[in-house]
Amino acid sequence: MVPTSLLTIRVLLIALLPTVVVSCSRDSTSSESRCLNTTPEIPIFTETVARATDEYCNETGYREISFGDRLDFVFVPAGSFVMGSFEGLADQRPPHEVYLDGYWIAKYPVTVAQFEKFVDDTNYITDAERGWGSWQWTGQQSERVDRSDVWYPMADGRWNNIYFNQEDDHPVGSVSWNDANAFAAWLSEELQVDFVLPTEAQWEKAARGIDQRIYPWGNGRPDGHLANMADSRFISKYGPYTRNPDPDIDDGYVETSPVDAFPQGKSPYGVFDMAGNLGEWVFDVYDADYYARSPSENPVGPSQPEGGPDQDIERVNRGGSWVDRAGLEHDGAIDPEGGHNLLAASRTGDEQNSSDDHMGFRVAIDMTRKAVVKPVDPDLPDLTDVEIVTHRINDQMYMLEATRDAAGNIGVLVGSNGILIVDDQFAELSPQVKAALSEISDNGLTYILNTHHHIDHTGGNSRLASDSKSTIVAHDQTRIRLMARGPANWPEVTFSDTMSIYFGGEHVRLVAVPGGHTDNDVVVLFESSNVVHMGDLMNSGISSFPVADLSSGGNALDMLDNIERLLTIVPEDATIIPGHGPLTNKTELRQLHEMLIETISFVDARKQAGRSLQQIQTEGLPVKYAAWGTGYMNAEGWIAMVYQSIGLKKAVQ
Ligand SMILES: [Ca+2]
Ligand SMILES: [Ca+2]
Ligand SMILES: [Zn+2]
């Protein structure tokens, strides 16, 4: 909330401003000719206007269209401007003339309410939730982390979990560049208009117009009515340990502000919040030397590199934020500290999958580009309509099974003060898993054990662990393999051979049996309940051949050795939770063992006789194994795994 005294000052200031005569009629037929720089009838203009719900001249006289609730777009007419600055850091030099075709840019950054609608519609999981967390400003006042830390990567930091209050009309933060593009792609689908992130050049022109001004509003320092920055309120909460906050300025906000809170700070085109509040992702790859070689027409930044969302690529962020300073000293000198200030020419770069509580975005519409859609994870099956079925084993143990065998089985042990689970399916299913657990017990999650690194068994690590502050336990090698997926997925407690956890009156024993399914296989024994979670060493009981994931250090021959060892460890009357499929028992474990012996020697004999893999697959396994080939892994696939496993073993010998 803005204090009343400040509001009064604002009203007075507005009253004192010279009257600008601009027609703001919402009658489009009569207003068109009265908007500034009447635009040519190009497709980007006419097609977009046709889809909008309203068209008018905005407060500064430029054309504006609206798609409803703060989804307003200002048309920036075609023409040249000077991009960059002599006064700023080297990455802003040389200033160079750039011609841009006309384009529409959002009047406001994307708000919390808008992003929430996107997530509600799509169940989208942000990069922060995928395990990368969000950097959050803690200052020196936070009780959440060590007082010496000012910036801190919060594992549970995400767009809807920022430690300060974020209202619906505040800009959404703690979103990555990937997330921003995903929003743009969704909005494009919703409104049938191609929304994109603005290019860096489009952003800068929209922010400072064609007169090389320092800030969107002109060349004067911010004064509390123009932008939300690190001001006296910021200092009183977070201390002066920041990038030189300004104690003379009171802008009314400690952290973020509504996107329309600073009308006096709008740009020459009437675009809001281009300085401060949240920094904004733009389309371009960040390259400090780009201005020296930028094309002079419609630059889109350095060439777009190949590679997935987690590839280490820096994208440009613009405009400064609530934790940043003015960048212009009282004596008029420009004192840049990278882009960590409100100067319209300042630039910073950040990894495209990283999120920050001071970084948001806005979208734009131009003729040439579509939103960059994040490649779909190839390991991710279709999870629509998947449900979680709970199977009771005894008073304190359960198995959670995903319908359509969409993800690995979860073993559940309920203790007096918490819950221990083995494996956690996909992050996309975490809400359903949480609901199933809450049906079983009110207790919170205490431990998450991983049987191996595969994403259908560990994908929920980030969301479940960060939501519940539970501890993830796994094999040393599981942690190493999960490093590629972001810190919130990483096990905090690891072991190499065996480990015991005493929980809920149970002796929970983890035994590493690596090398069969993957190089980090673990089975979990619940001694008093007489239950064993086998991970994917036993896949769907006897309705599917197992999987030896050779690319993850698995091998069919080692699987046979490991199953042989497990026959001595697993008690006779144990209930077995397989990696996938229904609850099973030691009789079926023996059948698995026999199948492994026979099919491996079957393939080995033929391989030694000089048959090719294809010949062996064509001949097929003995008919008694027909049922094994009806599940997840068929006979051809299993023959190939055995064939390759033998080859790998021979190569090692
Ligand atoms: Ca502020
Ligand atoms: Ca901003
Ligand atoms: Zn697996």
What does this structure look like?
The protein is α+β, with helices and mostly antiparallel strands and 653 residues long. It folds into three domains: 4-72, no CATH class; 79-99 and 108-365, paralog of FGE (formylglycine-generating enzyme), CATH 3.90.1580; 388-585, Metallo-beta-lactamase, Chain A, CATH 3.60.15.10. 25% of the residues lie in helices and 18% in strands. A seven-stranded mixed β-sheet has the order 15-16-17-18-19-20-21. Helix 13 (556-569) runs antiparallel to helix 14, helix 14 packs across helix 16 (635-652) and helix 15 (613-619) packs antiparallel against helix 16 (635-652). The longest helix has 23 residues, at 586-608. It starts with a helix and ends with a helix. The model is unreliable at 1-32 and 141-148 (pLDDT under 50). The structure holds calcium ion (2 copies) and zinc ion (ZN).
Summarize the structure.
The chain has 653 residues and is of the alpha+beta class. The chain is built from 16 helices and 26 strands.
CATH-assigned fold name of the largest domain: paralog of FGE (formylglycine-generating enzyme)
Proportion of residues in helical segments? 25-40%
Radius of gyration from the alpha-carbon trace, in angstroms: 30 Å
The order of strands across the largest sheet is 15-16-17-18-19-20-21
> How far apart are the termini?
72 Å
> What low-confidence regions span 5 or more consecutive residues with pLDDT below 50?
1-32, 141-148
Q: Indicate the CATH class of the largest domain.
A: Alpha Beta
Task: Let me know the CATH homologous superfamily of the largest domain.
Answer: paralog of FGE (formylglycine-generating enzyme)
Small molecules bound:
calcium ion, zinc ion
Task: Specify the structural class.
Answer: alpha+beta
* Count of domain modules: 3
As a percent range, the share of strand residues is: 15-25%
The count of β-strands is 26
Architecture per CATH nomenclature, i.e. the level-2 architecture of the largest domain? Alpha-Beta Complex
Which outline best applies? elongated
What is the averaged pLDDT score?
89
Q: Largest beta sheet, briefly?
A: 7 strands, mixed
